[in-house]
Amino acid sequence: MSSIYFDNQLPISEPGSVRCVAWSKGEETPLLAIAEGSCVRIFREEGEELEDYKQQGRVACTALCWHPVSKVLCAGWEDGSITFTGPQSGGAREDREVHRDAQILCICFNPQGSRCITTDMNGVVGVWKTDHKGMLSQMCHYRKNGSHDKVIFRTMTANGEPSLENPPFFFGGELGVIYLADDFGLCSERNKIGSPLMMLEYYHQKDMVVVITKSAILVQFTLDAEGKVVNESKQKLECGPNPEKFQGVWAGQGLLASSSQESIVRMWNLHDDESYIMSLHSVDDKTTLAGDKVTSLDFNPRKRVLACGTRGGRVVQWRCSTLHGTPKSEANWQVLPVVSATDCAIDRVTWGPGESLLHIKTERNNIILSEAQLNTTVCPPYLAVQTAPTQVLLYHLERASRTVISPGFRVRGLSIGGNFVMVWNQKQITVHEMEGHGLGVSVHSSFKRETAPIVAAVLIVQGMDKQIAIATGAKIEFTNLQGFVHRSIQFSQDVEGCPLCLDVNGHFLVASTTMNVIRVWNVSKTKEVLKGNPRKFVSNSTDKSLGEIRSLRVNSDGTKISLMVDQRLAPGGLHSGNSTLRVPDSRVFVYDTEADCFLNYNVGRSRVPMAHSWDCTDNRLLACEVVPQALCYSGTDELAPSVPASPQPSPTSGKALRKGLAAAAAEEEPVHCVMTLFVASFERDGSDRILLQDSIPCADPGVGGAARMPVALVVPHIYFARQLGDLASTQGQNPETVSAEQEGALKEGTGAMITKTVLRDFVGLEHVDEHTKKALLDFSYHLACGDTDQAYKSVKGVQSTGIWESMSKMCVKTGRLDVAQQCLGQMGHARAAGALRACCEPEADAKLAVVAVQLDMIEDAELLLKKCKRWDLLNQLYQACGEWDKALEIAQTKDRVHLKPTHFAYAQHLEAVEDVQQALAHFEHSGTYRTESPRLLCSLGLTDDLAAYVEASEDPQLHRWYAQYLESKADLEGAAREYRKAADWLSLCRVACFNKELEQAQKICEETQDHAACYHLARHLEAEGRIKEAIHFFQMAGRVSHALRLAQEHQFDGDLMSLALSSDPASMAQSAKYYEQRGQPAKAVVLYQKAGCQKRALELCFSARLFDALRKISDDLSADSDPEVLAKCAEFFMQHNQHEKAVHLLSMSNQYDKAVDLCMEHDVQITEDMAERMTPEKNCMDAIARAEILQRMAKLCKKQGSFQLACKKFTQAGDKLKAMKSLLQSGDTEKIIFFAGTARQPDIYVLAGNYLQSLDWHNEPEIMKSIIQFYSKAKAHDKLAAFYDACAQVEIDEYRDYEKAGGALRESLKYLAKAVGTNAESDQRVQNLQQRIGLVESFAGIRKLAKSDPAEMVSVCEKMAEMPDIETAVRIGDIFAQLVEHYAETQNFPEAHRAVETMRRKNIVLTPYVDQALLETIYSAVGQQAPVQEGAPAPGAVVRGGGGG
Fold this sequence. Notes:
Helix content: 25-40%
Distance between the termini: 99 Å
């Protein structure tokens, strides 16, 4: 069913004065507001004006915006006033204060409609609180420089949370400054672009502001949590020659569509930072849009369609074909038919609410385009087709006569009953009566329904009873033909919804509601009778909704109802609520009223069913119009277990072509077609299924593939309607192909013509009687069901041979091989039956192709072989038909394995027709030209042509064949010439030898080095007794054995050695034996060794005492050599005191004990390589014996000073302690630390710690850390305590840092207590250490007393100096140095002098404690000579410092 746009012209007196338009937001009762000068008018979708809400202002209206959730219109005026009015407002409201005397530029509501933003020319931005009734109150306003005409709401927070309730908003304008404000009076500048704004948009998913300026700069930025601009980017846009005419709109998530009076639309993918274009030139093939330019554009997010108005008055549309993510390229957009809307340039296109309304503004008019489907109806013998908004074509099926009905109003629906045809729209119904044989039509009755709009209507004629069923509101009314209501059926709006669709077929009426409830009535009685219970359109098992019904049809007996369905989907492809995308479902649903279940059939990928109808007499046959559409829903909701969701193959044989049709429907390129379906009932399992019967393309092959619309299924035909425009174009292009019927349609101005196509199963049987027609229909039905027996029974009584032949052809088309066999038998076609029995191919399609060939259905056979991909059989078919070009093409592209046989067969064909040149060419392609081409030329006696053919060829084999041919003719000179061209040196040498030209033969062999030629010449020379030359050419031929044979036979010992060395091992061994017999052992040993006979070579060395040769042999020995040979060599080297060599050989022979003993006995220095060779493998001997060998080796290495090697062997022997002791002797600190860390034994930790203490650990922090770590791991608390004690002493002696020393002593005390155990408190060592800690900490605290209590400090120092055991903890020199420092700082030099003298009396060396300069100062102050100190001052020995280091 095609769609058509109704153009509703709006009664605008001055279209040029229209400044702004706005569509209401809700789908229900869409309204369009238009500002015409100083008047605001509101129109319905049909173009009717709502006079009650017309506003007449004093000045021009400059801005319009509808409330997002109610029918309330906000208008802004040139004098700054704001008005609220509309059908759902509580009354007209107006405000003039906020924008006093300033033109309103922009009005914008937030998503929930609770806030309204208004801006004006003076830079004032007003914020209003609003509700769904139009109540408003001012909340705040802002005044900024410049005018602001762009406002967007920030509906996402910085942390990614949606903010739909009172979100903040951005605004900007001519100064290029963008502000962020809210309704609490907070407003701040966020970005300064520097150029006037042409577009300000908000990318919700990324919380990003998108700006396009008049200088064609695209700016993107986001705000962080503090409101600062981040992630800002700028790029120059390519806007064509007219950037000032730029228009842009969102066309999907992160996708911006723009145009600037060009023939292309530019798409900017902000998500991926990519762009692409969509061109008007690629819309159609007729170049009707050549030179046209895009002047305006708008995107419908519900329909996912981008509409573009052009300069030529056309509307071009692209539908987004993906539900997931952002369209990546122009391939994701499907072109829709172009709509010619007007004859002047379109200034603006604006989508209305929903999916079918589009407003077009031009300088001459304002138009509302409303998309609707063309209507068809059939009731044999009459057919009615809507061809235009106000025109209906009435057609008589039997007489092929036609007439046009023009009811005078836009038609919304058609219905035929008896001799009456009814047309209707929302307000009016007209009934026409057909009279006479000339298809005369007169108006029978007409009436209007002004009170409630007509949603659907059907005409019901049962004999003499005629009535009309009208769906209006929540009821169906039954009226007579004059419109008088007899009775009505009421619906519950809350439970069932309001009736939406009606259909009648025979005695049955069906209705569906807005809540997708289906009801069926039998209307054959005086009063309609409800059949079954109302049924919701939900899944049989889950009660989940299966979609929204958009159309339904009932079959002739009321048992099946077909449904066309839409799905409500979110942009991601998931089911959602009403405010989402409405997508057609690619499935046809059928409701079985008797089984109370829903069946479905998927029409294929990227296809949707658009219209459907049942056959008027057969209740099983359903026709469905299918159109290509990329955006469709193909989900598989769960249905009843007995209902397959896709076509099921036949349970018996012969399913090939029908299954192939189903596969084609899913895989091939989508095309506009009609699918005929059988709704089949299977008695075996009690289930119902929908089966594909045939698929008929809608393109008319008779007129160059012109588009046509299927309108009716009346067996045995499907009727199509083709538009008059297509007829006219066809007639202009090819007048001789236009039929008389087409010419009549053009002359009568019927708008379209009706054509018909015979159903596949009735080809050649269009005029059979009703009984045969029914039998054929049953035959086709049972074939589709896979019931061969019933199919045969249904036509068993038919006696016509022509009918059986037609059924045989039908079986080929439907893929029923089994039935085809029976039909061939009924026909008596013995040849076809025999060919079928002889066919052994595994594929059923291949066997069907055999039948098709026998029935002269060559094209069908070709299709069948293509479908089963039997390219070899297709190749044979083309060859049998003489279509050699096709055969070669198939062989080249699909059947490569038979490419050469195909060329060969074609060459034979050409040979038969005496096309010699082409035959030669194809013999070459087949690869048989080396034999076939000469055979062909010789058989025809064309010897000269043969010579020329060979001469022109560069193929060696062909030249060899010709040379043999010439040689057979005794033309040896010519043969030699051809042999040379073929590079057949053997034959050339053979000819030379035959001619006794031995020098020429030798020259050939020397130049070519051809082995075969050299061998032939050598045999010839041997026969002539020229042995030396024969040996040479045998060697050149690679036949060294023959050369050795001759050299031995003739005792050429000088040549024999060189020949033997270049021969194989067997020949070498034979030659070595020869030399051994000749008493030349040295040469024999060399050859035996080269031949791999080492044992024999060694025996010969030992017997002949060839020591040099023996050493060379031993160098080549390896672990893979014979152990006996290795042992003998080792013994030989031990006898001759070559111990290292012997050790090496003993190790290779696995005599590890003997090798170690030899090293120990003769003190052989063990290297790492030797040690590795003497180390037995783990699994080659007993572990204890292996450990003993390794221990002995390790001790020997340790004795030789190879400590690391000894460590390695001790480790391999499992004695890690000895390994550690050996490693300690090496002094390799890094390896000692590593080994201790991996050994994980307390004794080894202690050894490592002891060793590290011997190093300069107080200057190496890593060593100190390792010492502590090792002692801790070994739990050697006494060692750790002693180490910390040593650390404390170092701090005192080296750095005089008593604080650190105290800390170290406390650590020592902690570990000493652990070492002592539970009686730590009474242990003398612990007590002594505690006493030391007390003294050290006391002295460390003296320095702090020097500033706070100097007298106390002096007293404490003097007391400590008198303690007898003070030296165990504190150096007495440090005590006196502290006193000297204090006295010097306080200028008490006499006391300082006394302290120094006391140190001298106690024999304390002054150098480590008192600086020489300080001594001189003190002694100079008391008038004495400073004593001379011994040695240089110690590091850190400054009297001021107690902290060292």
